[in-house]
Specification:
Blueprint: E1 4-8, H1 13-23, E2 30-35, H2 38-52, E3 57-61, H3 67-75, E4 81-86, H4 106-124, E5 128-135, H5 158-166, H6 176-197, E6 202-206, H7 222-240, H8 247-259, E7 267-271, E8 280-282, H9 293-304
Parallel strand pairs: 1-2, 1-4, 2-3, 4-5, 5-6, 6-7
Antiparallel strand pairs: 7-8
C-alpha cells in the first residue's frame, strides 16, 4: 500500500491522469506533483482537486533535464514517499540533439538525467521507501508490424551507452525518433541495475503503451504530427488492433505496477510482442538483452559519467 507518491511531469497527460487515479484510492494520503512550471502545476493541482474532491496534492518544482534543479527540489521534500513514478520525458523534437550542460543530449537529459539524480538523492537522504517506476516504451523491443526495429546495439558497453547519451553513437544524422528507443533502453537498463543494487526497493520499468492524449505528438516534426494525430491514431491503429488505448488505460498501467504484487522488481513490463496495447508482459521473455546484468551495469555506469 502506497500512501504517498511523487510523480514527475505531473501537470499534464499521463502524469496528471496517474495522479488522478491514485488520488481516488482511499489509501493514498499525498500525491506530489513534480513539475517544471509553477503556473501549470498550480492549474493542474486545482483541476485535480476538483476532479477527485481531495486536497492531497502538493507541488515541487524541478526540471528533470537539470541536475542542480533536481537536487534543490529534493531538499524541499521533507518526508519520505512510498513510491516514485518517473514519468516526465518524450521525443522532445527539434532540439533533441542539442547538448546540455551535463554533456547529454537534450533527449537523454529529459528522459533520464534528472530521474537518475532524483532517485540517487532520494535514496541518499532516505526519502523513498518502497517503489520506483520508470516510464519506458515498446520502442525498445520494437514493433515489427509498424516497421519499428528493436534496439540493436553492438556491445551494450558503457562507452556505447555513453555514445547514445551524448548522441555520438548516431553520427552526423541524429534522428530523435530513432534515438528515442535507444535512450529508453539505457534508462530501462539503469532501472533493472538499480533493482539488484537496492533489493529493499522495488524498481520496475513500465511502458504506458500507445496512449491517446499524451504530449508526444506535439514534440515531433509537423508532418509526422499530422500523420500521427489524424491518420495513425484515429484510423490505422484501431484497425490493426492492439495498437492504441485511451489515456486512462496508459495511466492505469503505472498505478497498477506500483501497487500490484504481480509486477516484480527488476522487470520491464509492456505490451505483448508486436503490440502497443493490451495486457502487459515481461519484455525480457523475448528481448533477452534486458536480462543481461553486465549490460544493465554498463548503462548505470554510462549515465553516471554525466552526473557531476
Amino acid at each position: 500500500m502506497n500512501e504517498s507518491i511523487l510523480i514527475t511531469g505531473a501537470n499534464i497527460g499521463l502524469g496528471k491522469e496517474t495522479a488522478r487515479q491514485l488520488a481516488l484510492k482511499p489509501e493514498t494520503k499525498k500525491v506530489i506533483l513534480f513539475c517544471r512550471n509553477q503556473a501549470k502545476a498550480e492549474a493542474a493541482k486545482k483541476d485535480l482537486e476538483e476532479q477527485t474532491g481531495r486536497k492531497i496534492f502538493e507541488i515541487v518544482i524541478g526540471d528533470v533535464s537539470d541536475i542542480n534543479s533536481v537536487r534543490k527540489a529534493v531538499e524541499k521534500i521533507k518526508e519520505p514517499v512510498d513510491a516514485v513514478i518517473l514519468n516526465a520525458g518524450g521525443v522532445v523534437g527539434k532540439t533533441a540533439g542539442n547538448i546540455t550542460p551535463s554533456g547529454m543530449n537534450e533527449l537523454a537529459a529529459t528522459n533520464i538525467l534528472g530521474h537518475v539524480v532524483l532517485v540517487d538523492e532520494l535514496i541518499k537522504h532516505d526519502k523513498v521507501k518502497k517503489v520506483v517506476l520508470l516510464a519506458s516504451a515498446e520502442a525498445v523491443p520494437g514493433v515489427k508490424a509498424l516497421g519499428m526495429k528493436p534496439v540493436a546495439m553492438k556491445t551494450s558497453s558503457a562507452d556505447e551507452f555513453a555514445g547514445v547519451l551524448d548522441g555520438s553513437y548516431f553520427g552526423n544524422k541524429f534522428d530523435a525518433m530513432q534515438a528515442y528507443g535507444y535512450v529508453k533502453y539505457a534508462g530501462t537498463m539503469w532501472a533493472l541495475a538499480m533493482a539488484r543494487k537496492y533489493p529493499n526497493l522495488k524498481f520496475v520499468a513500465v511502458s504506458p503503451g500507445n496512449t491517446k492524449g499524451t504530449q508526444a505528438p506535439n514534440n515531433i516534426p509537423p508532418a509526422m504530427q499530422i500523420m500521427l494525430k489524424y491518420v495513425m491514431m484515429p484510423i490505422v491503429f484501431p484497425l490493426i488492433g492492439g495498437m492504441v488505448h485511451k489515456l486512462e488505460v496508459g495511466a492505469k498501467r503505472f498505478a497498477d505496477a506500483i501497487s500490484d504484487e504481480q509486477y516484480k522488481s527488476g522487470v520491464f513490463y509492456a505490451s505483448k510482442e508486436g503490440k502497443l496495447s493490451g495486457d502487459m508482459v515481461d519484455q525480457g521473455t523475448f528481448y533477452t538483452d534486458l536480462k543481461n546484468t553486465t549490460f544493465q551495469d554498463n548503462a548505470n555506469e554510462a549515465i553516471h559519467r554525466f552526473i557531476k
